[in-house]
Specification:
The chain contains 4 helices and 25 strands. It is mainly beta. It has 4 domains: about 25-120, Immunoglobulin-like, CATH 2.60.40; about 130-235, TonB-dependent receptor, plug domain (Ferric Hydroxamate Uptake Protein, Chain A, domain 1, Beta Complex); about 240-315 and about 365-458, no CATH class; about 320-360, no CATH class. Strands 17-18-21-22-23-24-25 form a 7-stranded antiparallel β-sheet. A 5-stranded mixed β-sheet has the order 3-2-5-6-9, with no helix packed on it.
Length: about 450
């Protein structure tokens, strides 16, 4: 296991230049002016992430313009100060994934030691982009009712989206504005999470407990999203903060409250358990390392165990048919040798191949009869197990350098009957899936130029 993780990490770093990536952060820009609308150059702009304590700084140019890009999502405190003006603090500025917010800052004349604090969100509308999208917060997704607590079906809350497999955990087949589902791009922390064999869905579905935000972009998106002409579904995972936080969860489903399928003679037994825990916070080792404001972790271990019984309805040969007696068939059987009908519609025992007799005995006897002529039914057990893990590390080297690494392995076990009447014919699928994203951000300013380096996504 350790070797597999190491190989994935090395591969992500070596092939970084070949791997495309989509933006998983946000940005702000704007103008600093005084009460007469005159621009204020050389004003110091500072953003502080409320959850992690990390700060981002810049200064306005000669035209009073400023911008800060590649900011991790979260809630910020924005401050602006300049000589001869009161310090302005904007609290509760929430930045979502792919946001690019314009914030106009107006400073009041006064002493720098004086401070003006503005409570509430400074900007609620994105005026910098014509992108049409819908955003869901991970906390809201946990509270909303959902079958199986799957993430991808939440895409159906966006206008213009339909699916013929709305509850599927991975193969969601979401059709956006009439475009085929194979034209969608599914992203996990900016790295592709796509079934490259046919692009019908995702190799793995993130656990809902790990999701910070889920943005579905359906139109007018920027050039960074270029793999498909449909929608871009961008899932951002949670990271640690300065406070230790976590969850312990268990969700149980069973057939007692389910309705019977109209075409089934009985209610199919089902029991499902989704349980696990998550924990995140600063990396802290007493007397060795204090990672507050610098190094954070987030870990999830989860299990999904489902037991159900599939209902099979089939037509099987009667006991008479198995011995060659087709007198109850209602139409004559003809001898292939002479073209004449068999006497009494009974095939002589000497004419029946013994291998065919052995094969016929493998069929079960009829135990049921419906209007469609089906005469056999049974419930066959099915096992669906999923082991989920998520590991994420964020480290801030400085205000200009930061790195994020996330590794999400998943293992699925499916065991089920494949053929009606033959209980010994079963299929056993063991499917591993892995997704890893690593990115390194370098922000530097020279004549208002900003750069970002993406290290890898796999």
């Amino acid at each position: 296991m350790k070797n597999a993780i190491l190989r994935l990490a090395v591969a992500g770093l070596l092939f970084a230049a070949l791997l495309p990536a989509q933006e998983v952060t946000a940005g702000i820009y704007g103008v600093v002016q005084d009460s007469t609308s005159a621009v204020v150059p050389n004003a110091a702009i500072k953003l502080r992430n409320v959850a992690t304590g990390r700060t981002h700084q810049t200064a306005t140019d000669e035209s009073g313009n400023y911008s800060l890009v590649f900011l991790p999502i979260g809630t910020y405190e924005v401050s602006a100060e300049a000589q001869g003006f009161k310090k302005l603090v904007l609290s509760d500025v929430t930045l979502r994934v792919n946001d690019n917010r314009r914030i106009l800052i107006t400073l009041e004349v006064g002493q720098l030691a004086e401070q003006v604090t503005v409570e509430g969100s400074a900007v609620t509308v994105n005026t910098a982009s014509g992108t049409t999208s819908q955003l869901l917060d991970g906390r809201d997704m946990i509270k909303l009712p959902s079958r199986g607590r799957n993430v991808l079906p939440f895409a159906l809350l966006m206008p213009g989206v339909v699916s013929d497999t709305p509850y599927d955990r991975r193969n969601n087949r979401a059709m956006v504005n009439g475009i085929r589902p194979t034209h969608n791009a599914w992203l996990l922390d900016g790295g592709y999470n796509i079934d490259t064999g046919g692009n019908w869905g995702t190799p793995l579905s993130p656990n809902i407990e790990t999701v910070a935000e889920f943005r579905a972009i359906r139109g007018n998106y920027s050039a960074e999203f270029g793999i498909g002409g449909g929608s871009q579904f961008n899932v951002i995972t949670k990271g640690g903060t300065n406070g230790l936080h976590g969850s312990l969860y268990w969700f149980h489903r069973n057939d007692k409250l389910n309705a019977r399928n109209f075409f089934s003679p009985r209610r199919e037994p089902f029991k499902g358990n989704d349980f696990g825990f998550s924990v995140g916070g600063p990396v802290y080792i007493p007397k060795v390392y204090d990672g507050r404001n610098k190094t954070f972790f987030f870990v999830l271990l989860g299990w999904i165990k489902e037991r159900r019984e599939q209902n099979f309805l089939q037509i099987v040969p009667t006991a008479a048919y198995k011995t060659g007696n087709f007198s109850g068939l209602g139409r004559p059987l003809f001898d292939p040798d002479n073209g004449m009908p068999f006497a009494g519609n009974v095939i002589p025992a000497a004419r029946i191949d013994r291998n065919a007799l052995g094969y016929a005995k493998m069929y079960p006897d009829p135990n049921f009869l419906d209007a469609a002529g089906r005469n056999w039914t049974t419930l066959a057990g099915r096992v669906d197990d999923t082991n989920e893990k998520n590991f994420r590390i964020d480290h801030n080297f400085s205000d200009k350098h930061r790195v994020m690494w996330r590794y999400t392995p998943e293992f699925r076990l499916n065991d089920f009957a494949t053929s009606s009447g033959f209980s010994f014919l079963r299929q056993n699928n063991q499917t591993p899936a892995r997704n890893m994203t690593a990115n390194y951000n370098l922000n530097y300013a020279r004549k208002s130029l900003r750069r970002r380096l993406f290290v890898g996504a796999a």
